[in-house]
Design brief:
Layout (H helix, E strand, L loop, with lengths): L1 E7 L2 E7 L10 E5 L2 H16 L2 H13 L4 H8 L12 E2 L19 E16 L7 E15 L5 E3 L3 E15 L3 E21 L3 E20 L4 E22 L3 E13 L3 E3 L5 E4 L3 E12 L1
Antiparallel strand pairs: 1-2, 2-3, 4-9, 5-6, 5-15, 6-7, 6-8, 8-9, 9-10, 10-11, 11-12, 12-15, 13-14
Helix pairs in contact: 2-3
Length: 294
C-alpha cells in the first residue's frame, strides 16, 4: 500500500494506491482543509479498497487474539461512516436515461452536490433583423445535480438546466429613405446533455433552448422626423453547443455557438404603412464569455 499526505495550497491532499510486481490499482485522491481530516478520509478509502479482506483479517484477529465483544469486533471490521472530502465533480448525462435505475453502493454516506455557474457572454447574432449583425450580451446560469457514492463514484442526476437573459443592440437598420434604431431583450430556459462535465477542467454542453422577448424599434425618415416607435415581441426555439473550461475552483472561460427558429416577426413600417423590413425565420449567434462557478 502506498499512502501519501501532502500540504497543498488549499489545505491538504492525500493519495492511496495498492501495488504489486504485476499491477497497480487506480490512484485514489482526497482533499481537505486539515491534515487530520485527510488522514481520516484516507483510512476510509483504504478500508473500502481492501474490503472484504480487511474485514475478514480483523475479525480473525479479534476472535483469536483478544477477548473483544462481538459488538466491538463488528465496529473494528467496518470502515468509518465518514467519507472523503470531495472537491472535484466529474460526470455526464445520459442521452436516453432509463425510467428506473439500480446502483449498488458500499455502506456509507451518499453525498448530493448542486454545481452552479454563472457566465457573462458577449458576441453577435444574425437573422433577427435582416442585413444587420446585432450585438448580443448574455448572462447564463447553469445547474447540474451530482451524487457521489461512498466509494467515490460520481454521477449527474437528470439533465443540466440553464436560464439566460440576453440584451440585443443597440444597432441601426438603414434603408434608402429611413433609419431604424433597435434595442431589445429576451429571456429563456434550456435543458442540456453533458457528455463531459468536469468542475476542474472541461464542460461540454448540447442544449435545447426556448425563450421570448421584445425589440424596441424607432424609425425616422430621411429628414430626421420620427415615423414610428414600437415594441415588437418575438419567440425563439434554438439549439446550441457550449464549451467551458474551469480555471481552478472559481473562474472559467466559455464559448457558445447556436441557431434556431424565430417565432413571430420583428417588423418596421413607414408612415403610410408600407413595410421597411421583417425578421427572417432563422437566426444564428456566436458568443465568448467568462464566468464563476459555486
Amino acid at each position: 500500500m502506498v499512502v501519501e499526505i501532502n500540504k497543498s495550497e488549499g489545505g491538504f491532499s492525500g493519495a492511496f494506491q495498492v501495488r504489486d510486481e504485476q499491477s497497480a490499482s487506480n490512484r485514489r485522491e482526497v482533499h481537505g482543509p486539515t491534515c487530520a481530516e485527510v488522514a481520516d478520509a484516507m483510512a476510509v478509502v483504504t478500508a473500502i479498497a481492501l474490503r472484504p479482506e480487511v474485514a475478514e483479517a480483523e475479525a480473525s484477529t479479534v476472535d483469536s487474539a483478544s477477548p473483544v465483544s462481538p459488538a466491538t469486533a463488528s465496529h473494528a471490521a467496518a470502515p468509518s461512516a465518514q467519507r472523503p472530502v470531495v472537491e472535484r465533480l466529474r460526470g455526464n448525462t445520459e442521452m436516453l436515461p432509463a425510467r428506473t435505475e439500480n446502483v449498488e453502493v458500499e455502506a456509507g454516506t451518499l453525498r448530493f452536490d448542486l454545481e452552479r455557474s454563472v457566465t457573462f457572454y458577449a458576441g453577435a447574432g444574425v437573422g433577427l433583423v435582416p442585413s444587420v449583425v446585432l450585438p448580443r450580451y448574455e448572462i447564463s446560469s447553469t445547474t447540474a445535480h451530482f451524487v457521489t457514492t461512498p466509494d467515490g463514484a460520481q454521477k449527474i442526476v437528470g439533465l443540466v438546466f440553464q436560464l439566460h437573459v440576453s440584451v440585443f443592440g443597440p444597432a441601426t437598420y438603414r434603408s434608402p429613405d429611413t433609419t431604424t434604431d433597435l434595442v431589445g431583450m429576451s429571456f429563456g430556459m434550456g435543458l442540456c446533455q453533458a457528455p463531459i462535465y468536469d468542475t476542474r477542467a472541461l464542460v461540454l454542453l448540447f442544449c435545447g433552448q426556448y425563450g421570448g422577448g421584445f425589440m424596441n424599434l424607432v424609425t425616422k425618415g430621411a429628414d430626421g422626423s420620427q415615423l414610428q416607435s414600437k415594441n415588437a415581441g418575438f419567440g425563439t426555439v434554438s439549439f446550441d453547443t457550449e464549451i467551458q473550461y474551469n480555471l481552478g475552483s472559481i473562474f472559467h472561460v466559455g464559448a457558445k455557438i447556436g441557431g434556431g427558429l424565430n417565432v413571430g416577426q420583428v417588423t418596421a413600417e413607414r408612415a403610410d404603412g408600407s413595410r421597411i423590413f421583417g425578421s427572417s425565420t432563422w437566426a444564428a449567434y456566436a458568443l465568448l464569455g467568462i464566468g464563476l462557478q459555486f
